[in-house]
Fold:
Amino acid sequence: MAPFKAFAGETGPLRYALAASLLLLAQPLSVMLIFHIAGWPLVSDASFWFLPLRRLALVRTLSAAQAAIAFALSLAATGTLAVLSFRRARWSRVGYFFAALTIVPGVQIVAVAILALLPRDEVAPDPEPGFAIAHIIQGLIAGGAIIVLAVLVSALSFGAYGWSLFVMTPLLVGVTTGYLANRRHLLGAGRTAMIVLAAAALGTVSLILFALEGLVCILLASPLGALAALLGGAIGRAAAKAGHSGNRPLLGLALLPGLFALEGAMPPSVPIETHAAIDIDAPPSAVWAALIDAAPVTGSPGLVGVTGLAYPVRGRLLGAGVGAIRLGDFSTGTAREQVVEWRPDHRLAFRVLHQPPAMEEMSPYRHVHAPHVNGYFTTGETRFSLIALAGQRTRLVVDAAHRLRIDPALYWEPLARLAIRLNVSRVFDDIRVKAERSPLRDHRKAAGYL
Structure:
């Protein structure tokens, strides 16, 4: 397998220092280039150099395709840096847990600097080829336990959902499982990969059984986690093959709580702006009546409903005018909103005072202890504008402000945008149907517009 063969060689100090420096500069320079091409202002302060991708995620006009491309390029650079770092650790025979840290933004610069300065350690004999079921079981159990403990510490203790949980944790699961399974008898690359994925599956199933996560969230995070785990498995196998004595390749586990605490203290806050429009074959008065109508939203929620994400059920106005309260019923609960602009037939705007959970986890249990369903994706203000068109038609425009507080933002933002777009499309279709079926349509017909 080519990903495992990449770990077979070694990289000396000077070559590593030069190549790793270039890879570290690749992210901020690419972000600077994107900002320059798009004409966006960029503040290159200290936080930018430590977390360049987070700065890119703050761009409100960034499309889902642009975010996906930027994240894919970032993964390629990070993966290359990880391979290079573990080839450097293989040359030194030490520093494997520093190599693992090179994939975590914010600490990777320090990890690369330490790794570049490490001297060469004594050479230990390679593991013998063969098969040791006890060591494989150790790797499986350790890998599964790491996932459960990471969620308990990161999500429940620090409320942190970021690189350390979604990337560093599965990578360390791979390192631990791959190393333990190969430390006495060297397994093949393919068998190591299967054991690593089995350990990751054991951990994720345990999260469901312990009511720590739901099925949908695990499925959404699994592509990123599987890639990191496979990379970690290759790293762990390479460390075992290098004949590394003791369990020092596993010391990176001790740093996880500190990384979780760091991310909990500096959570991301990525704005997502929604702008959409639809032309409706009805006058503004009919569209306004449909907009403030308290009847349930028709039409199937589709993919949003299947995955358990929140979707609108109906909206109920308690009064009229600025200051009135609007109750937005969602599939996960009721949002309490306050009207901040009220111009009949022209504009309706409201801000969210209280928001229900962003999703309902798919789980055999009634309640799942997953903090991310509350407060990690929020909506601020929503504004509907009605623009009169020729022929007694109306253009309905919606602008909404959302905020995402989960990293890697460039991975989760396109998924959030997709859910928003599907919900907006369903609401637009419901308003269009209600407005075009309005009694006001009879007046348009009598006037000769139909």
Summary: The chain has a mean pLDDT of 82.
